Amino acid sequence: MILPVQAETSHRAPAQSVKLRSVNLNEIKDLLLQNDPTFWIRLKLLTEQATEFDDLIFLSSLRKKAATRRLPRPGAADAPLKLAILGGCNLYPLHELLTHLLETAGVACELLLGDYDNYVAEIMEPYGALYEFRPQVVCLLPAAQRCKYPGALIDARDAAQAAANAVARQVLQLCRTVHERTKADVLLANFMLPSRCDLGEFRTRTLTSPWNFRKWVNLELGLSAPPFVHVLDLEFLANRKGALAAEDARGWFESKQPCSPALLVDVCHEASHLILGLRTAPKKVLALDLDNTLWGGVVADDGLEGIEIGDTSPRGEAFKAFQKYILTLKERGVLLAVCSKNDYARAIEPFEKHPEMVLRSGDFVSLKANWKPKSDNLHQMAKELQLGLDSFVFVDDNPAEIDIVRQFAPTVATILLDGDPANYVGQLQDCRWFEPHGITNEDAQRTAHYRAESERQALMASAADMDSYLESLAMKAVIRDFTPVDVPRLAQLINKSNQFNLTTHRWTETEVQALIGLPDYVCFSVRLQDRFGDHGLISIVIGRVGGDALEIDTWLMSCRVLNRQVEETVLNELVRRARVKGCSRLEGIYLPSGKNEMVRDHYPRMGFEIRTVTPERSEFLLELNSFRPRSTKITLRNESN
Amino acid sequence: MNRTDIITKLQAIFDAIFLAPPKLTPLLEAKDVPEWDSLIHISLLVAVEEAFNVRFRVGEVETTKNIGEFANLIAQRMTEK
């Protein structure tokens, strides 16, 4: 079942492989035997640490036994995710591992398993078990055994290319079919490349070779995949593990396993990462230590000339490479910040004066260099940038600083650099917190936004009163119906807004797409610009017409534009549209999420009457006959009906 | 390592994996042990291959009927390596 011992370097794993079995499994067994609910916390922790196939299988069997024994589990259970797994291989124990990872990460699963190599029929049959099940996510592993060129090795390139394109097209067509019938997101596995020396260098010279044929199919799959398809990149995962260690001929002959147990662990981690990523936004801020993180040495001791940065030494080169990579993150839309225990003037000197530095002061939205605890600085930064601490990633080479942040700002993700600057780029590249879910233009412009925000704040301090300040901003808003081209940004904002969000109702990209043009829905977005810059798409409303009421399902706004009268603008538009739909009142609800305290009194502030208030839910009402539009300093352009 | 030694070593593996570990005897079969399902079977095989530093050949584990035959197979793979 398992291949000879090899260096394990699973991408989610700690730097060192941890073999749990001998160490501490008795403890968790005892917790279960004693019916101790802390079992679940221990299980989550061990699952996060485990890198080995058999350890995870063992933990999974413990989890199932705990469920059978009805061991009480703290925390509310959400509705389970309906997950269908289909494929051209045995889906057992793949589904065990995948559900185990999802469940310990807090996503309960209801599962439908396809039969062995029956996925084409299962997807094509419109009244079969798959469609009765109504999956929200479909994970499809097409048959690798059929991904090969059927003709002769010496056939012309055109023929092989047409065959490879056809394979990709057929697989993607299956994805489209299942998506059209269920609206499910589809995780599509691509194909592992051969590991054996067969054909020698000739494998590179013809598209008819299994090696090149599969590479072509994989390229086609990725490049042509529609947005609801998320590629489960087996080619990449197997390459990362090593092709020989990724395959398992015995496992195939004995029970049609798609790959080795070791790779199965990676495949399931990746699938779980993709599924969790459908509902969580990437992190937004990268907060960096300075000394021995961005450069070698301590600038306050070694001086500007003494620090190691740049192409004059191997260490300096490594730090420079780290800075270059950080700059690419900024270009992808990640906000950079400095969080350093330092003398401010000495700390920023390298950014201003050192010729070899890649990063400059202007690349950062916040520069904190002082003697306060770093956790305090991060709290302060979050407040100033109006972002949640859970959107921060903090990087330091000092374990004590990492520990302070873990204790006093526990929602901040942390990366402890391992001490060798040669590894720093790799550590950051493997952290998985900044993976784009489709890069939007707004992401790329974010740093500019936040810098302009500081200038706005300065203007506010000088403006005589709020009204003249708002007037001086020369704000222009555009209100627009949901459009297909806006869908990625709409879904992104819906799924990352926590603070100014009345219901925190999440909608996937697919669900947002489905709202376009529905007659009994009122859906629009607001873009805002002012004389300092373009804020982009910053507010979203989704309302449902029910009788003579317009129920506001979703009302959210980016906190960057708080107190700018966007709320009033949105309310005016809501009322206008409600009247067009023949409604006589607006109904609003507030669902406390722990993060949206800011909008608890939003509806009363907007002139709504209070209907009911409970700790879980408050309801509000606005009669339209007496409503008069609010005046604002925003010039409005309406691009909708 | 004779069959008794192998079964003693197997017992330690079973003790680690099962919540209620069975007492191993040469005639014990998987169907005699309620907790011995396919999931725990996978754990067992991986742990056994690792602990004895052997690799079973395709299809041969499923031909063993009980712990005694399984121990014989382990012994055979240990000597033939």
Identify the quaternary structure here.
Answer: heterodimer
**Fraction of residues in helix of chain B:** 40-55%
The description of the largest β-sheet of chain A is: 8 strands, mixed
Helix percentage of chain A: 40-55%
Q: Note the run of SSEs of chain B as H and E.
A: HHH
The low-confidence parts of chain A are: 1-18
Shape of chain A: globular
User: Strands of the biggest beta sheet of chain A: in what spatial order?
Assistant: 16-17-15-14-13-12-11-18
Strand content of chain A: 15-25%
Backbone structural class of chain B: mainly alpha
In whole angstroms, the N-to-C terminal distance of chain A is: 62 Å
Number of strands of chain A: 18
Number of strands of chain B: 0
Shape of chain B: globular
What secondary-structure arrangement, pairings included, does this model have?
The complex is a heterodimer of chains A (641) and B (81).
Chain A: H1 21-33, H2 39-49, H3 53-68, E1 81-87, H4 94-104, E2 109-113, H5 119-124, H6 129-133, E3 137-141, H7 157-182, E4 185-189, H8 210-224, E5 229-232, H9 234-241, H10 243-246, H11 249-255, H12 261-277, E6 285-288, H13 299-306, H14 314-331, E7 335-341, H15 344-353, E8 364-370, H16 374-385, E9 392-396, H17 399-408, E10 413-416, H18 424-429, H19 441-444, H20 446-462, H21 466-472, E11 476-481, H22 487-496, H23 509-515, E12 521-530, E13 533-546, E14 549-557, H24 566-580, E15 585-590, H25 602-605, E16 609-613, E17 618-623, E18 635-639
Parallel strand pairs in A: 1-2, 1-3, 3-4, 4-5, 6-7, 6-9, 7-8, 9-10, 11-18, 14-15
Antiparallel strand pairs in A: 11-12, 12-13, 13-14, 15-17, 16-17
Helix pairs in contact in A: 2-3, 4-12, 7-8, 9-12, 13-15, 16-17
Chain B: H1 3-17, H2 38-52, H3 67-79
Helix pairs in contact in B: 1-2, 1-3
